[in-house]
């Protein structure tokens, strides 16, 4: 079982990236928006503030996960930088999703691109740096995992 987990980053880099960044995105969104979700008691609020951040982080992790793992094999800090970029890219995925769901659930929002730009701008200002820091931590952890897998395989 240990060898299965050790070789997983090499065999399934998209899956590893999607799961790692998805879990991190859900944890950050839960920490940030959990009081609003609990007090709202509305499934749309949970969709907007928990599901959409999780979805965008998962997709971003699946897209850039192989690159994070490959960069981390060279240097752990390079993996951390790619991780920060991956999590920041998730904001760029989140903004249009959020704007589309808002326009679908709340009548009166007709300018979806304008709302997406507004969400993107304020999202980068309000939560951009914590998301980038968490992404850097995830990228660093993934790079350490991928290099430990190489060392483990080389020692055996």
Summarize the entry for a quick read:
With 156 residues, this protein is mostly helical.
What does this structure look like?
The protein is mainly α and 156 residues long. 91% of the residues lie in helices and 0% in strands. It has one domain. The protein is elongated and about 50 Å long.
Q: Structural class of the secondary structure composition?
A: mainly alpha
How much of the sequence lies in strands comes to under 5%
Number of E strands: 0
The string of secondary-structure elements, in order, is HHHHH
What characteristic shape results from the CA principal axes? elongated
Unreliable segments of 5+ consecutive residues: none
Averaged pLDDT: 87
Helix content: over 70%
Counted by DSSP, the helix tally is 5
Q: Quickly count the domains.
A: 1
| Largest sheet: number of strands, sense, barrel closure | none
Rounded radius of gyration (Å): 17 Å
| Cα end-to-end separation | 15 Å
């Amino acid at each position: 079982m240990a060898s299965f987990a050790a070789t997983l980053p090499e065999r399934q880099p998209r899956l590893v990236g999607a799961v790692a960044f998805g879990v991190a995105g859900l944890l950050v969104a839960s920490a940030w928006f959990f009081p609003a979700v609990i007090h709202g008691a509305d499934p749309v609020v949970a969709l907007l503030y928990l599901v959409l951040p999780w979805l965008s982080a998962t997709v971003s992790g699946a897209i850039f996960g192989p690159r994070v793992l490959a960069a981390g094999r060279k240097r752990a800090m390079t993996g951390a930088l790619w991780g920060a970029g991956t999590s920041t890219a998730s904001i760029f995925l989140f903004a249009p999703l959020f704007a589309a769901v808002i326009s679908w659930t709340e009548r009166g929002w007709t300018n979806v691109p304008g709302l997406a730009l507004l969400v993107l701008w304020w999202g980068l200002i309000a939560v951009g740096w914590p998301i980038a820091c968490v992404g850097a931590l995830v990228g660093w952890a993934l790079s350490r995992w991928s290099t430990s897998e190489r060392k483990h395989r080389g020692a055996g």
